């Protein structure tokens, strides 16, 4: 195999193709904004928004431990979201909604209409109107094409559309025990920070959408009030949300003013009891989720002993919780407890069949425990469930190499280098191909 030559040729062709595509797009970079009806600088088509969403959102949802296993909760979130989407400026987008198992407080939208809220934020809401405000706000980002607009500005300066699955978040070997080759995959610019003007517009549109379908706009006031309080009292607890959704007193004050003026005559509903009934399965394990939140805070500080204690408490309350088992697995791995880490990962895999992150974690820890065939089998299963993670390709190469199958290892390393050519992993892959005689 003459890999060195082909890698270089691929790189040049792709770069020329993308740059040419960007140049062509720059010549015709205007579109009508679906919200304002005005011409807007735009280099990303609606079809590109949808394709980028389909390619990247599944990785983020899996990184957030997948949708909650209680299907009734996800049906509920889906119903609320779809009712709002139908009244929005882009009702034809392929919207889909879910509550994910992540414990941090956040909600986010991909540009094609894939939207998620975490179970952490579900515990902070008081009624269905606040959930509608949250979903309406995220739908508004899709409607106003905020992500596509930001991407277009980036393309205008860089000349190419540089979005896709990446491995920057896993290049530091010290981080591998914590992310297991998963954190931040694909999200990149798609979930980067919105501007304050974007947030103001999303708040305004969110109130408009919720009012249209019969919710009390007071739900937006309640949401802003709760988030603003958390922003002041527990900034680290909601730092991920405010990294992408800048919070301010102004946003809360604006919601209050708009409720008293524009929506003064609104007779919408708050629906507190219905909300509480529909999230009963999440509320039931609130103490466990709060322990996991404390444990994740300790993990960020690399206080792994304290983190393990919090995760142990959480698992005593909710023994089969997928996120809890995965977090304990990562914590054990970070402490060098390879066998215990593998046991927790295998329990997580058994308790949530088909959710991809546990497959990857079992693969990683099987490598650590020198169970190479098991590692390879899990990486293969992961790749079928959730294709597009280049780290899986790299670790398959490691597995094949450990099993003495150089040809298969070389194929995986070559695939990895086609996507990523920097960092210690790329160096390992290149050195193996070179020393084995696969490069000129």
UniProtKB/TrEMBL annotation:
BP terms from Gene Ontology: proteolysis involved in protein catabolic process
Cofactor note: Binds 1 zinc ion per subunit.
Keywords recorded for this protein, A-Z: Hydrolase, Iron, Iron-sulfur, Metal-binding, Metalloprotease, Protease, TPR repeat, Zinc
Keyword Iron annotated: yes
TPR repeat start and end residues: 288-321, 356-389
GO MF terms, alphabetically ordered: iron-sulfur cluster binding; metal ion binding; metalloendopeptidase activity
UniProt xrefs under SUPFAM superfamilies: TPR-like
PROSITE patterns, alphabetized: PROKAR_LIPOPROTEIN, TAT, TPR
Domain Peptidase M48: from-to ranges: 73-257
Required co-factors: Zn(2+)
A GO cellular component annotation in the UniProt record: membrane
Residues annotated as transmembrane: none
Signal sequence annotation: none
Similarity field: Belongs to the peptidase M48 family.
Protein name, as recorded: Peptidase M48 Ste24p Zn-dependent protease with chaperone function
Organism whose genome encodes this protein: Maridesulfovibrio hydrothermalis AM13 = DSM 14728
């Amino acid at each position: 195999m003459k890999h060195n030559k082909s890698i270089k040729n691929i790189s040049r062709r792709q770069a020329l193709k993308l740059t040419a595509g960007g140049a062509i797009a720059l010549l015709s970079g205007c579109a009508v904004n679906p919200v304002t009806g005005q011409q807007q600088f735009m280099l990303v088509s609606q079809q590109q928004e949808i394709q980028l969403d389909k390619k990247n959102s599944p990785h983020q949802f899996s990184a957030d431990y997948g949708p909650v296993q209680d299907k009734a909760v996800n049906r509920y979130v889906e119903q609320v979201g779809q009712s709002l989407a139908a009244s929005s400026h882009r009702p034809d987008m392929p919207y889909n909604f879910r509550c994910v198992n992540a414990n941090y407080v956040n909600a986010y939208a991909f540009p094609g209409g894939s939207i998620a809220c975490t179970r952490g934020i579900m515990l902070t809401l008081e009624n269905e109107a606040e959930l509608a405000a949250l979903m309406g706000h995220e739908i508004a980002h899709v409607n106003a094409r905020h992500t596509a607009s930001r991407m277009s500005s980036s393309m205008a300066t860089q000349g190419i559309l540089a979005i896709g699955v990446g491995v920057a978040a896993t290049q530091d070997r010290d981080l591998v025990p914590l992310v297991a080759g998963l954190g931040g995959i694909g999200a990149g610019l798609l979930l980067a920070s919105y501007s304050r003007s974007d947030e103001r517009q999303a708040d305004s549109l969110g109130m408009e959408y919720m009012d249209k379908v019969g919710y009390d706009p007071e739900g937006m006031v309640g949401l802003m009030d709760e988030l603003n309080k958390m922003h002041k009292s527990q900034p680290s607890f909601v730092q991920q949300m405010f990294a992408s959704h800048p919070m301010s007193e102004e946003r809360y004050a604006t919601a209050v003013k708009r409720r008293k003026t524009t929506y003064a005559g609104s007779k919408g509903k708050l629906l507190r009891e219905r909300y509480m009934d529909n999230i009963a399965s999440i509320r039931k394990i609130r103490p466990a989720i709060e322990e996991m939140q404390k444990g994740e805070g300790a993990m960020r500080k690399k206080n792994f002993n304290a983190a393990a204690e919090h995760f142990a408490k959480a698992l005593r309350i909710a023994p089969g919780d997928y996120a809890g088992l995965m977090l304990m697995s990562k914590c054990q791995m970070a402490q060098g407890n390879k066998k215990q880490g593998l046991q927790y990962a295998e329990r997580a895999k058994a308790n949530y069949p088909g959710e991809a992150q546990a497959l990857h974690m079992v693969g990683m820890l099987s490598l650590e425990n020198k169970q190479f065939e098991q590692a390879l089998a899990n990486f293969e299963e992961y790749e079928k469930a959730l294709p597009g993670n280049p780290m899986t390709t790299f670790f398959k190469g490691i597995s094949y190499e450990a099993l003495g199958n150089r040809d298969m290892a070389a194929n995986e390393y070559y695939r990895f280098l086609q996507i990523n050519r920097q960092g210690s992993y790329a160096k390992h892959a290149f050195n193996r191909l070179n020393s084995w005689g696969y490069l000129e």
